Amino acid sequence: MMRTILLVDDEATARYGTGRALEKQYKVIEAGSAAAAREALTAAAPDLILLDLVMPGEDGLSFLRWLRENGHGVPVLVVSALDTAKTALDALRSGAADYIVKGFDIEELRRRVGNLLRLAELAEENTRLRRELVADGQFGRLLGASAAMRRVFEMAERVAATDATVLILGESGTGKDLLAQEIHERSARRGRAFVAVNCAALPEHLIESELFGYERGAFTGAAQQRKGKFEQASGGTIFLDEIGDMNAVTQAKVLRALENRKIERLGGTHAIDVDVRVISATYRDLPGEIAAGRFREDLYYRLRVVTLELPPLRAHKEDLAMLVDALLGQLGARHKHRAHVSPEAMSLLRRYDWPGNVRELRNALERTLVLCDGDEITLPDLPEEIREYRGVGGTAKKAGDESFLGEADFREAKRQFEIVYLRRKLEEHHWNVSQTAAEVGLHRQSLQEKLRELGIQRPGK
User: Fold this and answer.
1) pTM above 0.70, yes or no
2) Which of 106, 187, 441, 450 is at a distance of 20 to 30 A from 122, taking alpha carbons?
3) Quick one: 317 and 307 in the same domain?
4) What are 76's strand-pairing partners?
């Protein structure tokens, strides 16, 4: 099938000469402006665009950015009379696949066009193979053949090709960071920086300088200028993990960066252009945080252009066997110890509700594999909390109301305390969530989110 090339140049003579050089091998269509090129995109679906940078009205760079922001992945060969490194760099950063200066040799043009079309064919084949993997329940390092996981993967596959801002929701341990990385790797920004920032791990007084950088002398100890994460990610993707924990001042600055594509270093006096895609993630109920006055509503709507929600592991336990096999394969190679799970042990793994999700599953399997002597993981090899688990509510054989005091791990003790405490409060109020939330000092939506996180359900549901 003959490939189609769209020539976008306001000079008719330039279009004529380039068209004659390519018309024997390709179907060539022409557009004298960015507006005409938009119409041609819909009518002809070109396989490659040759784009002039200097045009009256909307210039080539603006049109190129529009292409990428609207999810058009067609390769673009920028053609310009300007032979400067800055011009070429601007074009490549805006999403061009290649750059050639006017006055080029015809054979060089044909070679560049042929190379880009071959690369496009390989990219199409890669996309087809990735979609087949998604259908089989794999999205990069994330696994899940259940309907819930496939829905997330299919939407993530579609949104990855665009430059849209993405908000990933999900409990701790569900793989929000892996999903963000994979979206970046499938985007036009792959190969450029992916900068992750854990907003919950940074002290309040440091997060602003981490994100936006600072000038020398901006505060005591600022001995030299430092670029922030937004500048480090320019041209690529910044991942704001646990954005629900960000303070109000920083929220306002992030909102301005999203709106204006500019940031200002602490102590700085001028705005700095940044070209970044923003992916954020949180386990928090952001509408609840907004109602409580802790999160900006305008920022929330900026972040959630596309929302992806990773389900907790307890909601797709049909994927457990696939996950266990894959994780044991990875861990077995790492520890040089191969083992499989006995049917009885697998039954207990399915019964457990995995409050820490896939991260907890991986840690439990690694601990079990390291301590297991043979090539089969049996009931006694499993961690105690899994062996003694008795379903929703986390009750165990030895569980009295204060059984959590015997836990060695603080997080597990805290989780068990929360379960016991909240179940008792709910029972006192006949499982009325609103009344319970008012007594324990939580917003109703925040309490509902906590109940989902802990797997607490009203008896009989």
Assistant:
1) no
2) 106
3) no
4) 49
Number of domains in the chain: 4
For 25-38, b/e burial (b = at least 16 CB within 10 A) is ebebbbbbbbeebb
| pLDDT digit string, tens, across residues 201-224 | 888 778 888 999 988 877 877 778
The CATH code of the domain that includes 280 is 3.40.50.300
- Pair 95, 155 in one domain: no
Q: Examine the domain organization and report whether 286 and 326 are in the same domain.
A: no
Residue 133 inside a domain? The answer is no
pLDDT digits (tens, 9 = 90+) for 335-349: 999 999 999 999 999
The answer to whether residues 158 and 265 belong to one domain is yes
Average pLDDT of the residues in 22-50: 92
Residue 353 lies in a domain: yes
pLDDT in tens, 116-140: 998 888 877 766 666 666 656 678 8
3-state per-residue secondary structure call for the chain: CCCEEEEECCCHHHHHHHHHHHCCCCEEEEECCHHHHHHHHHHHCCCEEEEECCCCCCCHHHHHHHHHHCCCCCCEEEEECCCCHHHHHHHHHCCCCEEEECCCCHHHHHHHHHHHHHHHHHHHHHHHHHHHHHHCCEECCEECCCHHHHHHHHHHHHHHCCCCCEEEECCCCCCHHHHHHHHHHCCCCCCCCEEEEECCCCCHHHHHHHHHCECCCCCCCCCCCECCHHHHCCCCEEEEECHHHCCHHHHHHHHHHHHHCEECCECCCCCEECCCEEEEEECCCHHHHHHCCCCCHHHHHHHCCEEEECCCHHHCHHHHHHHHHHHHHHHHHHHCCCCEECHHHHHHHHHCCCCCHHHHHHHHHHHHHHHCCCCEECHHHCCHHHHCCCCCCCCCCCCCCCHHHHCCCHHHHHHHHHHHHHHHHHHHCCCCHHHHHHHHCCCHHHHHHHHHHHCCCCCCC
Domain of 248 in residue numbering reads as 143-311
In a domain, 136, yes or no: no
Average the pLDDT over 196-205 and give the result.
Answer: 87
Q: In this model, does residue 3 exceed pLDDT 80?
A: yes
pLDDT of residue 90: 83
46 and 108 within one domain? yes
Q: Are residues 158 and 292 in the same domain?
A: yes
Q: Which residue, 356, 387, 418, sits at the end of a domain?
A: 387
Closest CA to 292 of 453, 451, 457, 437: 437
